[in-house]
Amino acid sequence: MAVTTPGCKERESIFGRITDLIYQQVFIGTCTSMDMLQGIMVFISWTTYSKKPFLNFYCHVVMGIVCDMGINKAVPKDLSTMQAFKYAVGWRQNNVPTRTLDERRAVLGCFLISSGVALAMSRIDALRWNPYMDECLAVLTDTKECPEDEILVNLVRIQLVMDKVYHARRDGEDQFQARIYIKSFEGQLDAIRKQIPLHLQRDELVIHDWAIQTPIYPYSPELQRLESLYTALQATKNWLDVWLSFSPDFYQGLPFTLFFQFARNIVSLYRLSTLEDPGWDRNMVRSTANILDIIERIIYNMKKCANMVAEANPALREFDKGIFDKGMKMMASIKLGWEPKLMEIWYPSLPPSGLNGDEFVAPATDLSNMIPFGLDDVWMMEVFGSL
Known about the structure:
Layout: H1 8-28, H2 34-46, H3 55-69, H4 81-88, H5 101-121, H6 131-143, H7 147-171, H8 175-180, H9 182-195, H10 198-201, H11 204-208, H12 222-245, H13 256-274, H14 282-288, H15 291-312, H16 323-346, H17 377-384
Helix pairs in contact: 2-3, 2-5, 3-5, 5-6, 5-7, 5-13, 7-9, 12-13, 15-16
């Protein structure tokens, strides 16, 4: 109910009930279970509007439940210190558990969620990867109990490479050492891509999920730097082409990770469109992927989606039109803020637009009331507010 309720006010009320339940069951009652774990994973993956930052915190909650249940590692062969003590004093021991497929999916899902948040916000580390999780990948690959397992396995494999990129960029002592691994990361991604079954390759999200995250280093040799810039531009265009190929109603079922990628791609394209470098052709960027045209199409799709939600839910009040109405307003505000600089770059010979020839200055816009999609407000302001 929480993740499918269209109205922001009603959704906020349900979120409050959920957080109260989590507080009572997890923090006071210390009751951990698969139901609680899967419920919180759904809650944080498809929460599409929140006034308070919560993803970093709830990722740690999910990781804590996974570790408390012990499903992030193989069934231990030897007794722990506490288990040995209980055995010595004659306490009854539970039967040795076996790992179910649902538990294996849950631990891989926890890694996928936590790694996605870590990559987007750079404030936490993902659930630590270990050999047992490699075993989970292999088991789900071989078992093939349901088609979605193939998607999960391939997404996790891709995210494993992205996690390495994240740590190389964050923890590298200098940029040169990190650049050494660029080709290695690209090679790993290409190898994964070749292993993706043909029937999944129709879903381009699986393939293009990683592309924009290829790191770009401004102090690399000129040819290597330009190659990285061209790669980033084409990858950004590919990702946004896929995004725009979706019908607007598809947006309603997307998890937060894809909205993070959407925001990252829009910001990356703006930076590529305005990059000041003698060897970089910004008009080529415009002809390849015109960011203003793309934003206009996104605004249109958001408006169409907002109208669809309103038509399907006539009880929504005028002031509570839903997250996609807020998304439309935010994208319009971003376009208003970015357009003057882009027009100055693309058409330097034209006089500035404005009354009496005065230079046009985009009005200051408060995005805090327009943040959609459950993206962390602080994170969104860091991304968009600095541009």
